[in-house]
């Protein structure tokens, strides 16, 4: 609705004293905004059409048709818009209430799910500051779609948006979402199920002048997520996820940070508590990000086109020496607390061809109980073993013994090479790559150490 916002804001400049004439001028600008907004929003797979606009002195009505055509499924929504624009209210300049409805010719399951319900209601008040206060709501509903069951707990979002759509601030919440699939013949009669609850978000984003990308902060919280896979696999449950992202423009560089926590994760006999992640991405070139944002919209769904975009802009991307710093990833299990950290930075001359051996600086640090490191290694070794040995009938006890012997040998080799430090029941390591040299725990790694590292990799 960017053009609609511009149309409404333009009306402010021509306001004289209140009354019928002024209300009619505001109505004219909103009508123009509907037409241009429909053109702006009409990009595959979405088509927006203004079917009717009845203009009045103090209020107007409009009807738009929204068509989503993915090639596999076609859905149509009709939106009725009630617009109040005069005589001038004291609190706000205009108000628009848009009520969406599923069209009768939509797939039957959608018609049944939203029987006597509006899938979406959008209320917008246009203030004297040219911004809008918005409330978007969607009702709770239950339905079956292709044999799969969906229970949606509703949705609500309250937010403020600038007239030119360059700034948005508010919150959103979705109490619950439950999905249950119909089991196929290969699923042994067991349906997969997902239950999400307590999904909330707060956001404060804006588009810097002259740029295509958005900066600002987003906070996401999820009370719980339960997943029961098909084929009798172990169910999993996650509790109290919190994620905070912040992106800022500093001169011609863009800096981002992500901080996340999870209270607990449980799957069968495995439980992980107090997971923490803290990472930053600094010194992204704003000009590169601006161009990538613009061009990537055209390349959506085309991985090769996105890869080409990255390669074409690599010199500009590296010019400001970007840095990725995973400051901390930690978690707690019955064996104790585990912690990892890693970083990757470009230190070369972007005007020359990149030389990964000399231009990149990288660090890796870990400190964790030995059983945890053994378990992490074992999962990778097992995966590699199964890929290399295509055996239909596998003795699980023999496989577990083979994997354990392999893991013990690899870890022992890393200790002997000086890559791992064993201290009681804990193991730690600090690796650093810089100027083509690898150091392990403060000492340069010789040829034997490099061979030990390569042989220990699954």
Mean pLDDT: 83
Q: Give the helix tally.
A: 10
**Which parts are unreliable, with pLDDT below 50 for 5 consecutive residues or more?**
1-22
Strand segment count: 22
State the helicity in percent bands. Answer: 25-40%
Radius of gyration: 29 Å
How many domain regions? 3
Distance between the first and last residues' Cα: 53 Å
Query: Major beta sheet, specifics?
Result: 22 strands, antiparallel
Strand content: over 45%
Structural class: alpha+beta
Shape verdict: globular
Pfam families: DUF945
Protein name: YdgA family protein
What does this structure look like?
The chain is of the alpha+beta class and about 450 residues long. The chain folds into 3 domains: about 1-165; about 185-325, no CATH class; about 370-455, no CATH class. It has helices spanning about 1-15, 20-40, 110-115, 285-295, 305-310, 315-320, 355-360, 370-390, 395-415, 445-455; strands spanning about 45-55, 60-70, 75-85, 95-100, 120-125, 130-140, 140-145, 150, 155-160, 165-180, 195-205, 215-230, 235-250, 255-265, 270-285, 325-335, 335-345, 360-370, 420-425, 425-435, 435-440, 445. It has a 22-stranded antiparallel sheet that branches. Helix 9 (about 395-415) packs antiparallel against helix 10 (about 445-455).
